Amino acid sequence: MEILIRNKVIEAIKELYGQDVDEKQVQVQTTRKEFTGDKTLVVFPFLSFSKKTAELTAEEIGTYLVKTIPVISAFNIVKGFLNLVIDNSYWIAQLNLAANAEKYGFKASDEKSELVMIEYSSPNTNKPLHLGHIRNNLLGFSISEIMKANGNKVVKTNIVNDRGIHICKSMVAWKKMGNGETPESSGKKGDHLVGEYYVKFDQLFKAEVAGLIADGMSEDEAKEKSPIINEAREMLRKWEANDPATRDLWQRMNNWVYKGFDETYKTLGVDFDKIYYESNTYTVGRDEVLRGVKEGIFEQMDDSSVWANLEKDGLDRKILLRSDGTSVYMTQDIGTAKIRYADFPIDHMIYVVGNEQNYHFQVLSLLLDKLGYKWGKDLYHFSYGMVELPQGRMKSREGTVVDADDLVAGMIDVARKVSEELGKLDGYTYEEKEKIYHTVALGALKYFILKVDPKKTMMFNPEESIDFNGNTGPFIQYTYARIQSVLRKAADAGIAIPTHVPEIVLNDKESALIKILSGFPDAVKEAGENHSPALVANFVYELVKEFNQFYHDITIMNEPNEDIRKFRLLLAKTIGQTIKNGFSLLGIEVPERM
Q1: Does position 398 have pLDDT exceeding 50, yes or no?
Q2: How far is residue 545's CA from residue 447's CA, in Å, rounded to a whole number?
Q3: What is the mean pLDDT of residues 108-126?
Q4: What is the greatest pairwise CA distance in the chain?
C-alpha cells in the first residue's frame, strides 16, 4: 500500500503542479494512534511546488488520492500531515492474502537471484565457543535466513582458525602437563579440554614473566624472553615447516575441538554450507602477498618481513608476513577470499564479525583491491557490538568467558524452574517437558540477543531473558501455543476454518491486528536491507502484544455469529503462522503446546 500511495503522490504532483518529484521526497508512514487514519503523507516537501499553504496542498493531494486509489475512502488533515483512511475491504483482502500464503512476506529465489555468501562463527581451535560466539552465530544464521526470505540465494560459510600461535600455546601446555589426557579419558568435550590448556599456558607464561621481571628484566623484555612463549613460536615454525610430529599433534587436538564445535552448533541450531580452514587458505594468501612484493604493491624489509604501506590511503603500515615467514590473519583472509570467489559466483560477500575488527576489514578490502580483485571494495563487514556481562568483558586467556555449552545448560535449568513454578506443564510426560524446556530456553536465549540492534553493545541477563511476560522469547512462544490451543478446540468442535472470509465490518481490535499483520512483508524486506534480525524480532513482539490485547478483550470460540467466529479463527491461525515464520528467521522454534 505504501508503494502504491508513493507512486500516486508522484503522479499527483506532476498533474496538479506540473513538477517531477523524487521518490525520496515522498514520506509515507503509519498514522499515529491518536489520529484517525491508516497511512500519513508528509506534505511539507511539496509546498515549494504548490506555492500554497500546507492545508490546501494536503486537501488537493488527498482529493486526488481518493479519486485514483479506490480503497482510500477518506482523509483528514492535521497541519502539514495528510492522514489517509483505508477502506475495510482492503484489510479483509490483506488477511485473505496472508492466510493463503504459507510463507507470507517471503520471496522465492529464481535463476536471476543474487548469490550472497555470509561468513559467521570463525572460531579459533584453542578454546570452546563462548557467549560472544553465540551472538555471532545467531546473527549470522538469522541474517542468512532473512536474506533467503528476500529472494537471495545464500551460502552460509565458516572459516575455522585452526593454525597459528594460539593453537600452538594449547599444544605446548598439553605436552608439558597433559600426561596423555584425552576427551575420552577425562570425560570432557574436546573443545573444553583444549581450552583448559590454553588457560594453563597463559598462567605459566605470566608466572615466567613475573620471575624474569623479578630478576631485573623490563616487562617487554621478559615477555620476549619467556621460555614458554618461545616454545610456542618454535612449534609454529615447525608446523609451517610440516614437521610430522608437530602436525600429528595439531591434527589430533584439532579433531577434538571440531567434534566439540559440532555438538555446540547442533545445540544452537546453526549450520554451514561450506567450511574453510585457515590451514588450507593461508598458503594461498602467502602466495598472493609474495606476488604483491614482486609487483611492487607490498614491501619486503631487510628482516624478510612483508608490509603494506597504506599511509597514502589514510591508514598505516600493515604487516602481512613476519620476519620468520609465518603468516598473520590478514594473509589468511586474503587467501580465503580468493578461494571463495573461485568456488562460487558470489554477488555479495558479508562478513559477520564484531566491531573490534572494523579496521581489519577496511584494510582487507583495500589490499584485495590493490591486488587487482575487482570485488575487493565490495566486501561488506557486518559489524556488530560486543556482548558484556554485569561483571564486565570476558577474557579467554584468563578463563573468564561464559562458555556456550554451560550457558545453554543453565538456560534449560532456568526454563525448567520457571515452568515448574508456574505449573504450565502439569500433566505432560517427562520427555515432553524436557523438549519444551529446551525449546523455551533456546528461544529465550536467541530472542534476547537478536531483539537488540546488532550494532549496539548489549548486556546479557539470563534470568531476564526467560521471563514469560514482556518482550521475551517465552512470552511469544506461549502466545503461539495459546493460538494452537484455540485451533485445537475449534477442530474438536468440528468447526472448519475457512481459507477466505467475506467482507465483514471490522471492530477496532480486529482492524488494528490486521494492519500490523499486513506490515510483515515490509519488516522482512527492511530487515534484509539493514541486515537486522532485530527488526523481525520486534515486529513479531508488536504483533503478539496486539493479539494478546485482542484475545483478552474479544471472544473467539464463544462468538455467537458463525461468520464472525470463523473470521476470528482464520485471523488467529494466520497470526500464529506469521509468528512461526517470523521466528524461523531468527532460528527459533515454537512449541505447539506449552
Answers
A1: no
A2: 15
A3: 95
A4: 91
pLDDT at 492: 96
SS3 category, 82? strand
3 state DSSP class of 210: helix
DSSP-derived letter for residue 374 is: T
Question: What structural domains does the chain harbor?
Answer: 2-86 (3.30.1360.70), 120-388 (3.40.50.620), 413-584 (1.10.730.10)
**Residue 471 pLDDT > 80, yes or no?**
yes
Three-state secondary structure call for residue 557: coil
Say what the pLDDT of residue 591 is: 93
pTM: 0.90
Tell me the residue length of the chain.
594
For residue 146, give the C-alpha cell. 532473512
Integer angstrom CA distances of residue 549 from 473, 486, 510, 543, 591: 18, 16, 10, 10, 21
Report phi then psi at 396, rounded to 5: -65, -45
Report the amino acid identity of residue 8: K
Decide: 10 and 65 in contact? Cβ < 8 Å. Answer: no
Identify the burial level of 125 via C-beta atoms within 10 angstroms of its C-beta, where 0-12 means exposed, 13-18 middle and 19 or more buried: buried
- The Cα–Cα gap between 127 and 257 comes to 8
Instruction: Determine the 3-state secondary structure of 299 from DSSP.
Output: strand
Alpha-carbon span 9 to 6, nearest angstrom: 5
Question: According to the model, what pLDDT value does residue 390 have?
Answer: 65
* Residue that is written with C-alpha cell 591486488 in the block: 371
pLDDT 10s digits, 363-383: 999 999 999 999 999 999 999
- Residue 135 to residue 144: CA distance in whole angstroms: 14
Rg of the chain over all Cα atoms, to the nearest angstrom: 29
How do residues 288-300 score in pLDDT, each as one tens digit?
A: 999 999 999 999 9
CA atoms of 180 and 168, how far apart (whole Å): 17
Here the contacts of 429-432 (C-beta below 8 Å, separation 24 or greater) are 432/593
Give the C-alpha separation, 307 to 319, whole Å.
4
Pick the closest to residue 382 from 167, 182, 527, 172 (CA basis). 527
Torsion of CA 8, 11, 17, 21, to 10 degrees: 90
Helix (H) or strand (E) holding 274: strand 274-277
501-554 tens-digit pLDDT:
988 889 989 999 999 999 999 999 999 999 999 999 999 999 999 999 999 999
CA distances from 78 to 34, 42, 43, 81, 115 (A): 11, 10, 10, 5, 46
Taking a C-beta distance cutoff of 8 angstroms, is the pair 121, 191 a contact?
no
Per-residue pLDDT reduced to its tens digit, 217-260: 999 999 999 999 999 999 999 998 999 999 999 999 999 999 99
- 150 touches 382 (CB < 8 A): no
3-state secondary structure of 33: coil
Q: Which long-range contacts (C-beta less than 8 Å, at least 24 apart) are formed by 447-451?
A: 447/472, 447/473, 447/476, 447/537, 447/586, 447/588, 448/472, 448/473, 449/134, 449/135, 449/138, 449/139, 449/387, 450/138, 450/139, 450/142, 450/533, 450/534, 450/537, 450/586, 451/534, 451/537, 451/538, 451/541
Q: What is the pLDDT of residues 166-205, one digit of tens each?
A: 999 999 999 999 999 999 999 999 999 999 999 999 999 9
The type of residue at 285 is G
